[in-house]
């Protein structure tokens, strides 16, 4: 029973701003990417045997060198990412070994602080027979659907809404089929599976698995890390 993890880390980080690619931005002295790899490795029950990271083209060698000490006995592969997130995931998926893997995780480098128990819940659900699994947390804002002119059209019942995180976990054949299907407009890998009619199961996520997106998220990350290190 072995898991492969794909880490899309090739995004520009436009909403975060700054001089560097988002995955290379540092919190507490380490890059978000290093934190993300550590987080996956900490989930020992996942049996991570292969780690594929999609990085901005040209950074393959330097990232491989940087991550080697953190990969441990997992095989580390670094590939150039693509223009959009699904392109980066697909580039990584193409080099995931075909044999000996019973679960593929897709985990954003930007969700650098995911706790090990979230990763392990996702993997356990896939091993338990769920073809696609996403960690979720309750929505705290009231969400409204609005028209193109800004008028409120509807207020969905909040108790039926959740926010979705990563790692998302997949039975390998399902993820490969989803990415081969040429689906456009899917904002995550689970949505591709939904489009194919594959049931997607939820497990409990964590507030700590928030996505570093905007500048204030870096402040939150610094504070959270400082508390963890106490
Ligand atoms: N990602 C990627 N390849 C892309 C775009 C995004 O691998 N072409 C990765 C990012 O590096 C990140 C994850 O997908 O780890 C989630 O994307 P997001 O949070 O949107 O990051 P960015 O696209 O970098 O940020 P922004 O949208 O603000 O530019
Ligand atoms: Mg983006």
Automatic annotation (TrEMBL):
Keywords linked to the UniProt accession: Isoprene biosynthesis, Nucleotidyltransferase, Transferase
Keyword Nucleotidyltransferase: yes
Source species taxonomy: Bacteria, Bacillati, Actinomycetota, Actinomycetes, Propionibacteriales
Pfam families recorded: IspD
Known pathway: Isoprenoid biosynthesis; isopentenyl diphosphate biosynthesis via DXP pathway; isopentenyl diphosphate from 1-deoxy-D-xylulose 5-phosphate: step 2/6
Species the sequence originates in: Kribbella pittospori
Gene3D superfamilies from the UniProt entry: Spore Coat Polysaccharide Biosynthesis Protein SpsA, Chain A (3.90.550.10)
EC number(s) stated in the UniProt entry for this protein: 2.7.7.60
Gene that encodes it: ispD
Name under which the protein is recorded: 2-C-methyl-D-erythritol 4-phosphate cytidylyltransferase
């Amino acid at each position: 029973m072995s898991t492969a993890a794909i880490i899309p880390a090739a995004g520009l980080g436009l909403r975060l701003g700054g001089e560097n690619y988002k995955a290379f931005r540092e919190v507490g002295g380490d890059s978000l990417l290093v934190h993300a790899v550590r987080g996956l490795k900490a989930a020992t029950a996942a049996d991570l045997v292969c780690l594929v990271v999609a990085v901005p083209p040209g950074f393959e060698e330097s990232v491989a060198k940087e991550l080697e000490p953190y990969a441990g006995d997992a095989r580390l592969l670094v590939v150039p990412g693509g223009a959009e997130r699904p392109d980066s995931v697909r580039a990584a998926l193409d080099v995931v070994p075909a044999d000996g893997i019973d679960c593929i995780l897709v985990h954003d480098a930007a969700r650098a602080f995911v706790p090990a128990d979230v990763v392990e819940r996702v993997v356990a659900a896939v091993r338990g027979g769920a073809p696609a699994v996403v960690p979720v947390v309750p929505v705290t804002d009231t969400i409204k659907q609005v028209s193109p002119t800004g008028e409120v059209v509807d207020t969905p019942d909040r108790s039926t809404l959740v926010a979705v995180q990563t790692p998302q976990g997949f039975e390998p054949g399902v993820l490969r089929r989803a990415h081969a299907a040429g689906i456009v407009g899917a904002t995550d890998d689970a949505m591709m599976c939904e489009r194919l009619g594959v049931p997607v199961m939820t497990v409990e996520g964590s507030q700590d698995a928030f996505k570093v997106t905007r500048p204030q998220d870096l402040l939150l990350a610094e504070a959270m890390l400082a508390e963890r290190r106490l």
